[in-house]
Amino acid sequence: MASVTLEGITKRYEDVTAVDDMNLEIEDGEFVTFVGPSGCGKSTTMETIAGLTLPTEGTIEIGGRDVTNLPPKDRGISMVFQNIALFPHMDVYDNISFGLRLRKYEQEEVDRRVEEAADIVQLEGMMDRMPSEMSGGQRQRVAIARAIVRNPDAFLMDEPLANLDAKLRVHMRTQLQQLHKELETTILYVTHNQEEAMTMSNRIAVMNDGELQQFDAPLTCYYRPENRFVAGFIGSPSMNFVEGRVESGEIATPGFDVAFDPGQVPELVAGDDVTVGVRPEDVYPAENAGELANPTRPIRARTDVLEPMGDQIFVYLVLRGEDASDAEAATTEAASARGADELLMSVEPDSDLAGDEDIEVVLDRRKIHVFDTETGDAVCHDILRSEAMGGEPAGPAGGS
Amino acid sequence: MSADPTADESADGDDPTVEMAEQAKADEPELDRGLVEAWAAKMISNPDRAYRATFYVATIFFLVTTLFPFYWLLVVALTPRNNLSEVGVFLPAGFNPAAFIEVFQTLPFHRYVFNSFLIATIATVAVLLVGSLAGYVFGRLRFRGRNAMLLLVLVTSFFPPAAFFIPLNRLFNTNVDVLRPLISAGSLYNTPYAIFIPLSAIFLPLSIFILMTFYSQIPDGLEDAARVEGTTRLGALFRVIVPLSAPGVATAGVLTFISVYNEYFFSSLMTDGRPGSWAPMLEGILRFQGEFEVLYNLMAAASIVAVLPVAILVVVAQEKIVSGLTTGAVKE
């Protein structure tokens, strides 16, 4: 068990920078997930922590020990790989005990530990099977047993569930969480699946283009994303973004306006180009607006495609524009760049909406996020500064 | 009831064939076919027969060309010394199995075979060891100038071995004082080193190439896993990559072993031909060639004896290769 600290980790290949100036402090016993789209540098970060590649710059500490230039075997870590990477020419026992035997443990100690590890991942009685004779889930459990048998300071897991089928993945997800509770070891987990990241971790490190975007608890990333990338990446289906401009007392977009009190939200400066973000679950049909304390004005839209998911229905809306804002929409040059006239709304399954129907929708103003269009950084969340969200003046988002 | 439709169907299905056969029958009398033409027509109408015939012809051809020389060696070996001038093609002129014992009595032929076996074994081990390291580097690491270096290594195998002979012979005949404590004369001539060093070098590029191909196909994850679990890169090579590349290692090993064991040029020139001077098996066979008489029967017997160790090795290795291939097949 140990903390893991990255300081200014940079990994440059000949012409690309895979990881750019990563700074992270992971606490002892924490479950931290690196999440991001493919090619964002999360696996490279993991490899530098494991010692499989050396960083171009920066230092790595595990348990307060500088391991930047140590070979992988001396870092006190173990790793579970995406392709599982069991040694195909060894049976389960030999696979699990590989590291112990290399470290010249007593035979009895090896037996005891292997048995213990196999017990934790429920692999009893499979010791003499070859990896080729096992199912995907069993192999994955062997790989996990191989990782825990050495009692490492930290586990690294590089997309360990990516090659499993959907049902097994959810099952293994809970198993991993139980494992974490049982062992209380620091776990560093890489995934491109934001759902895995949300459900399993104490904290998420969201990465994009080799840069750390946000390092926070899952729900903080969800409710207070630091920038547009995090907002779009965390949450499924992803957040709606509409580009607009701050006017006096309202944010004008081609499809709708959102009113705010300039006195309450000083971050919004008139004339700034901003992007309004709103999650599909915070868009409501106008007839349900009564439930909302602070809806926007009704927005005229036309339903396009409906995606019934069982527990909810995703409705694609094409905005038709408010009569009042037509003139303003013309002046907002930055708008309409990318599907700015589309919104995704999620409604209850009992809704009687149909395709190609003219309706009016409202947004929950308390759940509206505003981002700087140019930099993508969050300008503010909750443009009402309501008590419910804790009305600290600028919030952590304003700073970055 | 149920039979009718099937009958109908089959009748329908047969129709075109029947028609064709009828047509053929009608055509046939008009054609005045020769024997070959008739045979060709039969083969065209029934290609499976042609394939089978070709298969047997080819198989028998290869069996005869590869096995008949061995059979004839046996025939010569069994022919008594006095009848050697009238040795038959298919049957020996007389029966003298004692030749196989005489081989060892006339000369310490077993010593020659042992010399060759030892030299080939050392060369194989050396080639596999160095070839594994080089194969790992070329197959699994990316670095500047990799292709140029690989080409350079392969180019050395393009030279005729004879091109190396004169400088090497001069070198090995030079007395080097440093070697005196190790080798009595201080020169490598008349030692096994004089044969296995140049031969290892000559056969190394091919092995590097074979091993490189196999090692490059082992997934990176396995090597990474081994390194995280506690091996160095070298440990990962010998504990994970080499065992998983067993077919490639066996192929490279068998090729090297046979090549060195059978090699003629360096083997015949790097020693003075005495068994105590580490002269290889080939020298032993040539020694049955006297000043006034060539003992063909003993040469033949010696050749058969000399083939046995290699034949056994190949049979054993073959099993390994096959089992290696099947393990490879189920690899993730």
Automatic annotation (TrEMBL), chain B:
Which residue ranges have biased composition labelled Acidic residues? 1-17
- Where located? Cell membrane
Q: Is Ribosomal protein set as a keyword in this record? A: no
GO CC terms: plasma membrane
| Membrane recorded as keyword | yes
Query: Which PROSITE patterns does the record cross-reference, listed alphabetically?
Result: ABC_TM1 (PS50928)
CDD domains per UniProt: TM_PBP2
Give me the ranges of the annotated region Disordered: 1-29
A UniProt-annotated Pfam family: BPD_transp_1
Q: How does it sit in the membrane?
A: Multi-pass membrane protein
TM region(s), chain numbering: 53-74, 117-138, 150-172, 192-215, 236-261, 294-316
Q: Which SUPFAM superfamilies match?
A: MetI-like
Q: Which InterPro entries match?
A: BP-dep_ABC_trans_perm, MetI-like, MetI-like_sf
Give an example GO biological process.
transmembrane transport
Q: What highest taxon heads this organism's lineage?
A: Archaea
Q: Which family does it belong to?
A: Belongs to the binding-protein-dependent transport system permease family.
User: What protein am I looking at?
Assistant: Binding-protein-dependent transporters inner membrane component
